[in-house]
Design goal:
Blueprint lengths: L41 E5 L4 H12 L7 E4 L27 H8 L11 E4 L5 E3 L2 H10 L18 H16 L1 H6 L4 H23 L11 H17 L14 H11 L10 H11 L25
Parallel strand pairs: 1-2
Antiparallel strand pairs: 1-3, 3-4
Helix pairs in contact: 1-3, 1-7, 4-6, 4-7, 6-8, 7-8
The structure holds glutathione.
């Protein structure tokens, strides 16, 4: 069992501190890491609520890896044992044969006492978690699984743009992807305000950058856009209210709102978004900040409105 509840991990100053990824093995084309990229060998476990898992889901779809890497979707509501496979028949993942994701974690490390997190990639044969290293998972799907990509799959991490992508995604992670959690789980006023200021300063910078270019890096969709999208798409539904990220709603930031709609309307994005799972997960599971577990009905947002970006 995890010893620390999610959202309760704070520094002395009340800043939210995210746990380190416990399983960081890589799945590589040649298998020199000990885990070779092979169709049918691995199962990607996601929650449709989770922004980190959402990245992997989008990338898997854009690259056409659905037949190579199977998918398990957990119930958006965790119980005290963590993520459950209650959306499946008999409450059990049909491929891994387990009821809780924690079983795969404990099969890999019986002493593990951290949080059992998604996304995770599980080796179907051994039933063990290979990786929950979410930043690496998507990059490896792009670079190590090439042999199994669909014809014409986009290169989401092209070599000549890597340095720029890396530069852009670092502050996006710190201030936006993890920044919203640093707002929501801050344990002091000071830590909350610092995170809030950094979040909106970064969103202002990104708005300025995206005013005259369709995508974050180069003139094409890359890993950077996927990483920003998964936070933006949750912004008004959960982060604005639940995490107190409320200087503006996404729909009040015109450039980012059009950019997010553009991505949402791109094949491979909108169909992966499940607002019901997103809202139920956050409002129901983070008991410390929403003890009534009431899930708000709104907002009502039209993601299909023309975006006007070209
Ligand atoms: N692996 C990372 C990021 C992934 C992550 O935070 N996933 C969340 C859902 S968005 C999760 O699985 N939480 C499970 C828990 O806290 O028990 C971490 O440990 O911080």
């Amino acid at each position: 069992m995890a010893t620390v509840q999610f959202g309760k991990e704070t520094s002395g100053r009340g800043e939210f501190v995210r746990q380190k990824n416990r399983f960081t093995d890589r799945i590589t084309a040649g298998g020199s890491s000990g885990h070779k990229a092979e169709p049918g060998r691995y199962r990607l476990v996601v929650s449709l609520a989770c922004p980190w898992a959402h990245r992997a889901l989008i990338v898997r779809g854009l690259l056409g890896l659905e037949d190579a890497i199977s998918l398990a979707v957990v119930d958006p509501v965790r119980d005290e044992r963590g993520w459950r496979f209650t959306l499946d028949e008999n409450d059990r993942d049909p491929v891994l044969g387990i009821e809780y994701l924690s079983e795969a974690y404990l099969a890999s490390d019986p002493e593990f006492d951290g949080r059992f997190t998604v996304p995770s990639i599980v080796d179907v044969e051994s039933g063990q978690v290979v990786t929950n290293d979410y930043p690496r998972i998507t990059l490896d799907l792009s670079t190590e699984w090439r042999e199994f990509h669909k014809p014409g799959a986009p290169d989401l991490y092209p070599e000549h743009l890597r340095a720029e992508i890396d530069d852009v995604i670092e502050p996006i992670f710190r201030n936006v992807n993890n920044g919203v959690y640093r707002c929501g789980f801050a344990g002091s006023q000071e830590a909350y305000e610092e995170a809030y200021d950094a979040l909106f300063a970064e969103l202002d910078r990104l708005s300025a950058r995206l005013e005259n270019q369709r995508y974050l890096v180069g003139d094409r969709l890359t890993e950077a856009d996927i990483r920003l999208f998964t936070t933006l798409v949750r912004f008004d539904a959960v982060y604005h209210g639940h995490f107190k990220c409320n200087r503006d709603k996404l729909t009040e930031m015109p450039v980012l709102w059009a950019y997010a709609r553009d991505l949402y309307q791109t094949p491979g994005f909108g169909e992966t978004v499940d607002f019901d799972h997103i809202k139920r997960h956050y409002y129901y599971t983070h008991e410390a900040i929403n003890p009534t577990r009431i899930v708000p009905k709104g907002p009502v947002t039209d993601w299909t409105e023309p975006h006007g970006r070209g």
